[in-house]
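Example 3.
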Amino acid sequence: AQSVSQHNHHVILSEAASLELGCNYSYGGTVNLFWYVQYPGQHLQLLLKYFSGDPLVKGIKGFEAEFIKSKFSFNLRKPSVQWSDTAEYFCAVNAFGAGNMLTFGGGTRLMVKP
Amino acid sequence: DTEVTQTPKHLVMGMTNKKSLKCEQHMGHRAMYWYKQKAKKPPELMFVYSYEKLSINESVPSRFSPECPNSSLLNLHLHALQPEDSALYLCASSQEGGGGRYIQYFGAGTRLSVL
């Protein structure tokens, strides 16, 4: 069975700092990759996704992620975080042939200090 | 409109009660999902409905009974739950097919407490 790992469980940054959240998955075949964000008290929202093509994808709110196939990674980045980015971030993977099933990583709780 | 609406937002029930969670979407999506999310954990898939038929049951105990009355509605019937079933229950929907390239849209969830 596939698994998704997010190594940083808690991250605390000051505003304007750069952010990189790690995501690694175990599946060796074709994958579709997603980052979702859950702001406090709100529903899960899609930040960005990768299906194919350019491995560097841009999402909403200035976030981007890079798919590195050789490393089975899909790390999330933002050059300069804001207090409003305080949230929980989930990486999710869909394996080819698994329909629309998503496997989520354990999540990273980001706190941005003003 | 990309909204998935879940009711109620909060639910407290005893272990002998019967209650239902409801989920509604009007995006024309033909795949609908139930997830369970414990505090500080990722969502865990429980059930998937495809074209109103149950396609995936992730070995969920029978005290959880899903139902999809039509293409816009998804229910989760609860009976004889245990305190460890207390969690946030999330509903999601997506277009069907597409090789997994359809985005799942999530509702805000029902926070369930079992006493």
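The interface with chain A takes residues 4, 31, 33, 40-45, 48, 50, 55-56, 90, 92, 94, 96, 98-109 of chain B (CB under 8 Å). The two ends of chain B are 36 Å apart (CA to CA).
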